[in-house]
Design a protein that fits this description.
Two copies of one chain form a homodimer. With 359 residues, chain A is an alpha/beta fold. Chain A is 44% helix and 16% strand. The longest helix of chain A is centred in the middle third of the chain and has 17 residues.
Amino acid sequence: MTPIKLPSREVFSLNGKDNTVATPLPWYLFVQLYMEEYAADIDSISKAQTRIKPYIHVTPVLTSDTLNTVAGKSLFFKCECFQKGGAFKFRGASNAIFSLHHQQAAKGVVTHSSGNHAAALALAAKLRGIPAYIVIPKNAPKCKVENVRRYGGQIIWSEANMQSREETANKVLHETGAVLVHPYNDGRIISGQGTLSLEFLDQVPQLDTLIVPISGGGLISGVVIGAKSINPAIRVLAAEPKGADDAAQSKASGRIITLAQTNTIADGLRASLGDLTWPIVRDLVDGIITVDDKEIVDAMKFCYEILKVAIEPSGAIGLAAVLSEAFKQNSAWKDSLNIGIVLSGGNVDLGALWESLNT
Amino acid sequence: MTPIKLPSREVFSLNGKDNTVATPLPWYLFVQLYMEEYAADIDSISKAQTRIKPYIHVTPVLTSDTLNTVAGKSLFFKCECFQKGGAFKFRGASNAIFSLHHQQAAKGVVTHSSGNHAAALALAAKLRGIPAYIVIPKNAPKCKVENVRRYGGQIIWSEANMQSREETANKVLHETGAVLVHPYNDGRIISGQGTLSLEFLDQVPQLDTLIVPISGGGLISGVVIGAKSINPAIRVLAAEPKGADDAAQSKASGRIITLAQTNTIADGLRASLGDLTWPIVRDLVDGIITVDDKEIVDAMKFCYEILKVAIEPSGAIGLAAVLSEAFKQNSAWKDSLNIGIVLSGGNVDLGALWESLNT
């Protein structure tokens, strides 16, 4: 076998001294080394892509001349609401489930989540033929509970507070020996979500900017590592509700801030950063755009009426961000021209719409 | 130049007589000849495809394991609600506009339509830089009027009856010298809509059945000619509201039936067949499935909640048809396994949804 050749060293003289310096590492090696301190890297994301390929949808990218005119930019919408389970969450969940060893897997998985992660985990577990125990607070949206049930998840109810949720999950873990799969603070989840960026940049190579919703940070962590590994110059911005702006506050203060309470229509964006996602968000995400609920609802309206895509409030926040004054007025981002927006999920109760149709 | 060689004639004897018979024509020539009596053929559809390619979206095809389980079939959803203008109508409209001679085009186009054709024609005219005069009845849905306005159409109001619409359109024709582009009873329109089937069968070659909404018959006429030219064995079924079942009645009685009044939530499916679409529907469409408004609303619900696609009632009728007892109980259609469903449009007023989000 040929031994691996390290970068050669060159000797030259500037000032009579013998200046021996290392040749700079190629950028991709730099990126790879740089990222090894994080819970995911381009290698784990590429492996995730291969692992989950048989199970996921390659989601389409939509464009709209009307919205390009409104934004004054070329916008590309990555429709993860069309992903299995109705949200990007299935990428991470299926990566976590299918990377479990056989013996681990047999005992099943458990999570405490009221949202899209729960349904995604139930679906991935069903595909592998293992049990999924889903701890759900009693006040969870009906459609998200129905999704878990549809995919065969075993629902265990808890009270609507974090203490009860965690205690109930621990009880299930103890009784079943199942593996806990956290919704975002988990390298397997981050790597799975990162596959979105490889797929998106393959579909639209000219993207110079990505705008990604941020909550616990699992999606944007995977996306920023994947995207900057392919194109180090790409700008990755987070979109966050003003009523749950813990990530913006954390970036501003240089440490994880958690909020005593949140207040936003975007029920999928109320979580706080974890110790695995925070360093990635801190170091690699180029900025955070916060928007209020009115901006989110206006963006939802555009999604339904112009794009014809049925999304949940959290899913519309990327469009809200690109249309916000906060984005338009930031001179550092003027050169963002080809902007990829992740429409992250579409699970929303539409009761009111159907009532109006039935009258 | 080599002269074109006609099919050779063979001579053989079975019963002592000299039986001179023509060699059978190859099937594609048969199909081509057979179809020449209609307002469109595979040649006009192929030319339309080349003509409109720079302007249209290639719309994605979505699948859902959940809906496959509900239907007991493999369903493929052609999302024409993502077409420019929010409906398949832009295919026909852009074919009509871009096939006009320069001098004709300069005077503009006119149509009397309250629906998706009006917006599509306005948009296509805008792209060619010519005026579009759109006669709209005063009771037209707000979102459809807004679409026409967004695309720069010149709106001329009429009363909400056909006589006033036609009189107003004639007045505009007389004053401007513009060309009338009928929503469906026009070979250019039928050929343009037919491009959908070439695209769909290219994306999903294994389709054995197509289910297409029927109203005036422009879409299904183009689709059935295109699809059967590629695969003569393919089954093409129409989906029609029970409250506007003129096509089903026409097929049953062998002549065009028009209804004194219609009653359905599917506002895009209230038109009657024209003299150009009727012969195609009569001869080539394999059957018509009628569904009631409750079935349409249930299908809409599936589209929003499972597919995450925002459609109008007319757009959901193909899914309603495949889930109906009328389809399931028809033993002649048991062998339909890979079914293509056209989600034809997505222009719907969502006021009630936004009100509920804003409370």
